[in-house]
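User: For my dataset I need records formatted as: sequence, then C-alpha cells, nothing else. Please produce one.
Assistant:
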Amino acid sequence: MTPPDAAPPSSASSHLPIFHLDGGRFVASTLARGPWDPQACHGGAPAALLAAAIDRTPAPVPMQGVRLTFDLLRPVPVGVPLHLDVEVVREGRRIQLVDATLAVAADGTELVRCRALRIRTTHLELPDDRPSAAAPLSASPETLPRLAGVPGLDGEGFWTAVDVRLVSGRLGDPGAGQGWFRVVAPLTDDDGSGAPSLTPLARVAATGDFGNGIGAPLPMGSFRYLNPDLTVDVHRLPVDEWVSLEARSVAETGGVGLTTGTLGDREGGLGSCLQSLFVDAG
C-alpha cells in the first residue's frame, strides 16, 4: 500500500516535550498518547524514557546497551506524575545489568520495568569478509512523505512526536510493513536538571514499539492487539536520528500473537525487536 499524503510537522511536536518535569517527577504529555486509550501512553514513549535513563547510568568502562527487555505491566497514564528509578543489579567491566522502573509517584504502582544488558565497547581489527547485517531499506526517508495521521485517531499522540515515513504498508492495516522513524519532540523539558534526553538507544526503543502498528496482524478497529512487552536487541547504534523498521505479525485464534521486526539505519541492519501480543475483538 502507498503511504498517505505528507503532512507538515505538528507545531506542538516542535516545542512540547513527550514528558514534562514536575519536581523530579515525569508527567506524560499528549504527545505520549497511544492508539488504544486516549488517556494512556504509546509503549514507545516510556520505552524511550527508560532507555535514555539507562544510557545515563555510570559504568566502570565505556559500554553500549545491547538488549532492552520491557515488561509493560500496566497502562502508563497521561497527565499523572511518575517516578523513575534506575538500579545497577550486576556490575562488571565486561557486562553490566541495569533495572529501570516507572511507577505512579503517588502510590508506587509499578507500570513499566526494563532490564538492560550493557557490554563494554572497544576497538577491534576484524576481517572484512565477516558476515554482514541486512541491507538498508530501498528508499531513504527524505524521498518519502510524512505520515499524515492514524486512521480513526484525532489530535496529538506519539505519532505526532515521531516523524513516520512508510516505505510499505499502512499503520493499522494487516500485513508486513516497512518504515523510517525519527523522534522530533524533545523527550523531557530542558530545565538544566540533567533529566534523560534522547540518545541513539532511546530512539531505537521508541521505534521498536511501532512494530505491531506497521506490521499489524489484523485490522485496527475490528481487533485489538496490545503488546504487554517489548524486547530490543542491537549490535550497534544508529548513525543518525533515523531508525528503520521492517515488521510482521501473526495472530492465533487463541487470542495470542507475535510481532517480529528488523531494526536498521542508513547503513543497514542494526538489530531486532519482538512484541508479544494480547489479541481480542475490538
